[in-house]
Amino acid sequence: MDLPPTGDIAIVVAGALAAGFVNGLSGTGYALVALGFWLQAMSPLTAAPLTALCGVAGHVQSLPTIWKGMRWPHLWPMLVAGIVGVPIGTMLLEHVRPQPLKVGVGALLILYSGWMAFVRRPPIVTGGGRLADAAVGFTGGLLGGMASLSGPAPAIWAQLRGFGKNEQRGINQPFNMSILLLALVSAGIAGFLDRTFFIWAAICVPTTLIGARIGLSLYGRMNDVQFHRIVLILLGLSGTSLIVSSLR
Q1: Backbone angles phi, psi at 85, to 5 degrees
Q2: Which of 14, 93, 163, 240 is surrounded by the most beta carbons within 10 Å?
Q3: Is position 1 within any domain?
């Protein structure tokens, strides 16, 4: 079996370790961190499903930690609607220009995170019920199918619902794990899971789990305010990354 060059392996391992750490600490942000490293060493066709696989592995490892925080009455409408939204988003790819979409979503994330960082009393949304939860899930699935952006919608919604750190992760992680798993299956059906993918997977999955375990150990020491700030920072960085990547 021919291994990738040593320099590429070092870059990819560093990305998997850093992304796993961020994912273990916050429950989100894996793709944001990993792709910044991985796209220097592999093609997007390999990096995208690899991100999905490693993201799912990291989420599975942390599920016992955040299990008590899962809000099933809010989560199941989001999951069902999100799964419906993914193939619709994929079909819309041919009709939507990705650059304006990324700029729009990026600007929204920057504005939201900036506003929430300075407002003294963040708003709490109590109405809408399951219909509102489903609408957010559908939006996350739609954006996930169109541009691999399934994370921001549920992350923002969980904050607006006024959930604590365990409840936020109890919404975000199962949702993102389901969407990523669906994306991975779609990539397999499309024939993207080739020999190169499995070589990188054998390297990245265990490295991701190590990073996630370290992040989880620090997560237990954070309070709700600290977790809220970390999520806002990651959302702001995601928005900035989206705008920068769309201008290249």
Answers
A1: -70, -30
A2: 163
A3: no
